[in-house]
Amino acid sequence: MFDMMKMMGKLKEAQEKMRVVQEELAKLTHTAEAGAGMVKATVNGKRQVLKIEIDEDLCKPEDRQTIQDLTVAAINKALADMDEKIKQEMMKSTEGLLPNIPGFDLSNM
């Protein structure tokens, strides 16, 4: 039989766990590169860009478009990689907290 009080307790437990996980995610960092390491971007779990590193060989005026393109590529890769890390952390942290309810997926939070 379905126990509503038990379910509510599990939900509160899940909410607290999610709060803790979100605090931990903010501490995660990831660096990705583009152009064989010529441009590097570092992001955190809050999806904020923390640092951009550009190889000094790229710092010529005629390379401006290349620098812009590689910077965008590095940032996008770092953010995509961080999204995957966040998803994995969320799945690990909420494993076993809630019953398996079809259509109820916390991985995209």
List keywords for this structure.
single chain, about 110 residues, alpha+beta, Ybab, Chain: A, 3-stranded antiparallel β-sheet, 2 helices, 3 strands, about 50% helix, rod-shaped, DNA binding
Low-confidence region ranges: none
Give me the secondary-structure category: alpha+beta
Mean pLDDT: 81
Cα radius of gyration in angstroms:
20 Å
Helix content: 40-55%
Q: What proportion strand? A: 15-25%
In CATH, the topology of the domain at 28-92 is named Ybab, Chain: A
Report the CATH superfamily of the domain at 28-92: Nucleoid-associated protein YbaB-like domain
> Could you give the distance between the termini?
29 Å
- What is the CATH-assigned architecture of the domain at 28-92? 2-Layer Sandwich
Count every beta strand, where a strand is a DSSP E run of 2 or more residues. Answer: 3
Question: Oligomeric form of this entry?
Answer: single chain
| Biggest sheet, spatial arrangement of strands | 1-2-3
What best-fitting shape do the alpha-carbon axes yield? rod-shaped
Q: Name the helix and strand elements from N-terminus to C-terminus, one letter apiece.
A: HEEEH
> Can you summarize the main beta sheet?
3 strands, antiparallel
Number of continuous helical runs: 2
CATH classification, class level of the domain at 28-92: Alpha Beta
What can be said about this structure in brief?
By secondary structure, this protein is of the alpha+beta class. 49% of the residues lie in helices and 17% in strands.
Could you please describe the fold and organization of this structure?
The structure is a single chain. The protein starts with a helix and ends in a 15-residue tail after the last helix. Helix content is 49%, strand content 17%. The protein has a domain at 28-92: Ybab, Chain: A (2-Layer Sandwich). The chain is α+β, with helices and mostly antiparallel strands and 109 residues long. The longest helix has 31 residues, at 64-94. The protein has a 3-stranded antiparallel β-sheet. The model has no long low-confidence stretch (mean pLDDT 81). β1 and β2 (39-44) form a beta hairpin. Belongs to the YbaB/EbfC family. Homodimer. Residues 4-31 form a coiled coil.
